[in-house]
Design a protein that fits this description.
By secondary structure, the chain is of the alpha/beta class. It is built from 4 helices and 7 strands, in the order βββαββαβαβα. It has one domain: Transcription Regulator spoIIAA (2-Layer Sandwich).
Length: 113
Amino acid sequence: MEFQVKKAGNVAVITIESTSLGGPGANQLSDEIRTVMDADIVNFVINMEKVEWMNSSGLGILIAALNTVKRKNGELCLLNIREKTEQLLKITKLDRVFKIFDSEEKAVAEFTK
């Protein structure tokens, strides 16, 4: 799974370059977050613009990532989710757990309040 990481102040924007989140390689997102956290950044925006589908292991990765950053007093939000992913988050009620944004500017601004 490929990622692009962009730092904006105390926030890291991680763009998932894959069309899927789940299955082999999904744990790489957690590894990427831990790597960025080693640089003392604990707030994350996960850009899912290219993710067309996600399975239960993808949900598990997102939940684990959220728990990891919260343990360091950080926050994680989702950006540009597609309709199928949004439906999955609603069905599992995870839309109440994750803050979801449709613009990177709004997502990054969430951490500068």
